[in-house]
Write a structure and sequence with these properties.
Elements (H helix, E strand, L loop, with lengths): L6 H12 L2 H19 L3 H20 L5 H16 L5 H11 L1 H8 L9 H11 L3 H4 L1 H5 L2 E2 L15 E2 L5 E2 L2 E2 L1
Length: 174
């Protein structure tokens, strides 16, 4: 039994595998199917939502030029968010299912911090805070002023602020 070779099918299958969109779509389908199974929805609905989200991600991240890294990063970011228990999966996925592309674009355009866990967001906020020395809070630590002290650099007097520091060394208070 001879089978004819259909060149168009072979070329399109290879092109689909090399552009990376099919693997991303499968990753989205798998993740959304897991979430939909927990919500009692069907795989067809999960496939529809995955295709809508993938198309929105592709359109937003490429902007005329192919940015494969950014595209894959967005797919991974959304899949990670859908796997979190604190993220409101049901709301977003139902919104994408009913409103289609508009809701998918809204979800993709959310800031990256919105999709993180609250603990990770708190940690990022803590890391982004300036140290007291840079934010000006360190000046308030030095409450006492002595008009007799002179600045070593400029020689001005009355501008030196300090605070008293109590310490004990080897059992003796200083």
């Amino acid at each position: 039994v001879w089978q004819t070779l259909n060149i168009d099918e072979d070329v399109s299958a290879k092109a689909a595998k090399t552009d990376g969109r099919t693997s991303a779509l499968e990753f989205l389908r798998k993740t959304i199917s897991e979430v939909f199974a927990a919500l009692g929805k069907t795989n067809e609905e999960a496939g529809t939502v995955a295709e809508t989200l993938e198309a929105a991600i592709f359109d937003i991240t490429t902007n005329g030029e192919v940015s494969k890294r950014k595209y894959q990063a967005e797919v991974q970011r959304l899949c990670a968010a859908f796997r979190q228990e604190t993220f409101d999966n049901a709301k977003w996925l139902q919104d994408v299912l009913t409103n289609g592309r508009r809701a998918a674009v809204e979800l993709v355009e959310l800031p990256p911090e919105e999709l993180l866990l609250h603990s990770k967001r708190a940690r990022l906020a803590e890391l982004r805070q300036m140290p007291p020395q840079e934010s000006g809070e360190a000046v308030n630590q030095f409450t006492e002023v002595d008009e007799r002290l002179e600045c070593v650099d400029c020689g001005c007097s009355g501008e030196i602020r300090f605070r008293r520091l109590a310490s004990s060394r080897e059992g003796f208070n200083k």
